[in-house]
Specification:
This protein is mainly alpha-helical. It has a single domain, classed as Cytochrome c-like domain (Cytochrome Bc1 Complex, Chain D, domain 2, Orthogonal Bundle), CATH 1.10.760. The chain is built from 5 helices and no strands. The longest helix has 12 residues, at 4-15. The radius of gyration is 15 Å and the shape is globular. The termini are far apart. Residues 28-30, 32-34, 41-43, 48, 61-62, 65-66, 70-75, 77-80, 82, 85, 93, 97 line the site of heme C. Heme C is lined by residues 28-30, 32-34, 41-43, 48, 61-62, 65-66, 70-75, 77-80, 82, 85, 93, 97.
């Protein structure tokens, strides 16, 4: 039998998209290079959200950057492509990052 606590946890993850995307950032090891507020290997989520806040195509552009990687936008260190992440999860991550202002 599945413990009730696990059912409640799974249910609340579905109900709260922000948390679900934080879990995705952990699952795909984004957090090895990105943090919420401080620059690590890559820019912080907050820096990215601030830079793209007035860009109507931001979600699309960030999705492309996450899928294909990128370089030269933030500094000398390139971001490797993330082909292991499915499109739906990339879109969720891009939207979540843009909400981190
Ligand atoms: C090995 C380290 C590393 C990992 C792992 C990594 N990133 Fe990055 N990321 C970077 C670096 C470095 C940059 C800055 C690249 C540049 O200057 O253009 C970056 C840039 C970005 C940007 C900004 C792109 C832009 O066009 O401005 C986003 C969004 C992003 N990463 C999301 C993610 C997500 C989501 C994941 C997990 C699926 C992830 N990153 C995993 C290092 C990493």
């Amino acid at each position: 039998m599945i413990p009730l606590a696990m059912v409640i946890m799974a249910f609340s993850a579905v109900q709260r998209p922000a948390l679900a995307s934080e879990a995705l950032a952990q699952k795909y090891a984004c957090i090895g290079c990105h943090q919420a507020n401080a620059r690590l290997v890559g820019p912080s989520w907050k820096e990215i959200a601030t830079k793209y806040k007035d860009n109507p195509k931001a979600a699309q552009q960030l999705s492309t950057s996450i899928r294909s990687g990128g370089s030269g936008k933030w500094g000398a260190i390139p971001m490797p492509a993330q082909p292991q992440v499915p499109d739906a999860d990339i879109a969720a991550l891009a939207r979540w990052i843009l909400s981190q202002k």
